[in-house]
Write a structure and sequence with these properties.
With 641 residues, this protein is α/β, with parallel strands linked by helices. It has a domain at 614-640. The chain is 35% helix and 15% strand. The protein contains 15 helices and 19 strands. Helix 13 links the parallel strand 18 (532-536) and strand 19 (555-559). Helix 10 (421-432) packs parallel to helix 11 and helix 12 (506-517) packs parallel to helix 13. The termini are far apart.
Length: 641
């Protein structure tokens, strides 16, 4: 029994052992596979850790970046400019929009600066209110009810006929309408007759820029209805018409502050434009600026074909009055006789081109009617390639400009009929043009001018309070006319003489100065002689002459004294240097009479060094130049006599 039991137990143990051994062998296989999986998982885990680390770093960098941006934005909000209210920003942006060129770029640029600026710009309809052919489609949706500035200028290549249908529905919002390049193939603006334009403040209508007055005269006029905008423009203040013009009988010509008419050819059916213009001026009592240039009409060819205005037209607010190239002088006279001008007026008269022998169209025809001559304290007379007179008041404001256009033959070839335009103009200036309160006079007269010095002296002597004189771009005239003789003392009240861009020789200048500073016993106590002399770019004056001049005149101021072969800093011919507020102001003040400009000292040192190096040659040159100057002076004296 016992052996049986042992055998059975042995079998049981053996069976269990086999089972365990089998399980162990299977476990070893599973362990190897598990190790492979574990190794793979570990490798993947390492990769995941690397990716997570990189992602964490990227997230941290992004968070840091946005944190810095956030902090920077908070810091920017604390800066003074970002603490301004939106209304202030709106005002600043309004001024940031340029008038021209390309004002439509401004809102786009401002909107690209920052989010807050973009929000502000998008909420400002006025920034999008400048409309042309390229911006109409995109900007009009943002303007809301803001006033519109419509422009179709010379630089626009967008057809006006394509722009009009887009902007017409917004006519009640038009503030400025500028059609400066109306195509000749656009027959009329008749559609504007029924459009409401109650907000319109400025209207400019001009034809193509043909660049030639003869072609302008032949250019066909556009048909513009007299009842433009139904005649209902209560806010219209500025009207500018060129080539094309609204009929002068239109009710639109009322209540204006600025009126400009240029290059307009009226037809006989338009009536007398001069009378119509005077009627318009009387309907604009607050007019500040009036320009009328190159107006042609068949009905104005006769001097008696227009009625006379019974009462003067008072324009107390008028600041600038311009008549440019009005061909018939009776029209100019009618304007000047019919208007009462204020004391602060800037009057500008430009003569029309005419034949030199035709003296009926010269400026002296209306000299007696020019206002405010007694208010002119500074005057400039210029006779170069053109002729002109300019006058300033005591505060430096321009009161008068009389000009002949450039290119007019002021000096014709010499001959029996040498009484040319320049001479006649100077005669008229001395006889009819009284400016009793002038204290400063600037003159520029070319040497080839036929104006004789007696004419110049007669005009200068008429200024009884003259104390300062500028002579610009002069070789001998008119500075030589200031020489005092036994019979005549020109401009006895002159105290300060300025020579600018002058090639006058030292000997001649010394003779002029000696004659004006030497006194006689019977000389009036009011005549004190020359007290100050200013030389600007007088390159012929050497250091020796300056030394002698200082012994004659209490104050000698110089600037730009160079040798003739040194052109550094020389001013161009015709450069206007005059009056104490001008460029050479540092050299005209009598308070600085005891000092010389530093520029003169530097130049003098250079000249002194050059003189030491070539004393003998310079002496010979000076002797020759003085001899030549004496010969020239003798010849000129004989010519004058």
């Amino acid at each position: 029994m016992r052996s049986v039991g042992i055998g059975a137990e042995h079998e049981y143990v053996s069976h269990r052992f086999d089972a365990i051994a089998s399980n162990l062998s299977q476990s070893r296989g599973l362990a190897a596979e598990e190790e492979d999986w574990q190794r793979l998982i570990q490798e993947n885990a390492d990769d995941y850790h690397i990716c997570l680390s990189a992602a964490r770093d990227a997230v941290l960098r992004t968070i840091t970046k946005y944190a810095k941006i956030y902090l920077r934005s908070k810091q920017n909000q604390l800066t003074p400019i970002n603490r301004l209210p939106t209304d202030i920003f709106s005002i600043i942006f309004e001024f940031a929009v340029p008038l021209r060129p390309d004002p439509w770029e401004a809102p786009l640029i401002l909107a690209a600066v920052s989010r807050s600026w973009r929000r502000t710009v998008l909420e400002m309809p006025t920034l999008w209110a400048r409309i042309n052919g390229y911006t109409a489609q995109g900007f009009l949706s943002r303007v809301k009810s803001a006033p519109l500035d419509i422009e179709h200028g010379l630089r626009s290549a967008y057809p006006l006929k394509d722009l009009l249908p887009i902007i017409t529905p917004y006519s009640d919002q038009w503030r400025i309408v500028d059609f400066s390049n109306l195509e000749s193939n656009l027959p009329s603006l008749k559609d504007f007759a029924t459009l409401p334009a109650t907000a319109l403040e400025c209207l400019r209508i001009a034809g193509p820029a043909v660049g030639n007055l003869w072609r302008i005269a032949r250019h066909p006029r556009m048909i513009i209805p007299a009842n433009l905008f139904n005649g209902n423009t209560p806010r219209l203040r500025e009207l500018d018409m060129s080539i094309h013009c609204i009929p002068l009988t239109s009710s639109i010509f009322s209540g204006l502050t600025r009126l400009r008419l240029a290059h307009i050819r009226f037809a006989e059916a338009d009536g007398c434009p001069t009378y119509q213009l005077l009627r318009i001026l009387s309907a604009c009592p607050h007019l500040e600026e009036f320009f009328c240039g190159d107006i042609v009409s068949p009905t104005d060819l006769g001097g008696d074909m227009h009625p006379t205005i019974p009462t003067p037209i008072h324009l107390p607010s008028l600041r600038q009055f311009t008549l440019d190239r009005i061909k018939h002088t009776h029209i100019t006279r009618l304007f000047l006789e019919s208007i009462t001008f204020p004391a602060s007026l800037h009057m500008k008269l430009i003569s029309a081109p005419f034949e030199v022998d035709n003296s009926t169209s010269e400026l002296h025809d209306f000299y007696p009617f020019i206002p405010n001559l007694d208010l002119i304290h500074s005057a400039r007379i210029e006779l170069t390639s053109h002729w002109g007179v300019t006058g300033w008041d005591h505060d430096g404001n321009v009161l008068l400009e009389l000009k002949y256009p450039p290119g007019l033959p002021m000096v014709p070839p010499r001959g029996p009929t040498s009484t040319d335009l320049a001479t006649r103009l100077f005669n008229s200036l001395g006889e009819r043009y009284s400016m009793p309160n002038v204290t400063a006079l600037s003159v520029e007269i070319w040497n080839n001018s036929p104006v004789i010095m007696s004419q110049f002296i007669r005009i200068a002597n008429s200024y009884q309070h003259l104390t300062d004189m500028w002579v610009t771009n002069d070789q001998l005239y008119p500075a030589r006319a200031l020489t005092r003789t036994a019979d005549e003392f020109p401009c006895p009240t002159l105290r300060h003489l300025h020579l600018v861009d002058s090639s006058i020789k030292p000997k001649k200048l010394l003779n002029i100065i000696r004659s004006r500073v030497h006194h006689t016993d019977n000389q009036s106590s009011a005549v004190q002689g020359l007290c100050a002399l200013t030389l600007v770019d007088c390159y012929a004056i050497d250091e020796g002459a300056i030394t002698e001049l200082k012994s004659l005149v209490p104050s000698v101021m110089t600037r730009g004294i160079w040798a003739p072969d040194d052109t550094r800093g020389l001013l161009p011919c015709g450069r206007e240097y005059f009056f104490s507020e001008g460029i050479d102001a540092s050299a005209v003040s009598l308070d600085d009479a005891t000092t010389e400009s530093s520029e003169e000292e530097d130049v003098s040192d250079t000249d002194r060094t050059d003189t030491d190096d070539s004393t003998e040659s310079d002496t010979d040159c000076d002797t020759d130049s003085e001899d030549e100057s004496e010969d020239e002076d003798e010849d000129e004296d004989s010519d004058d006599s």
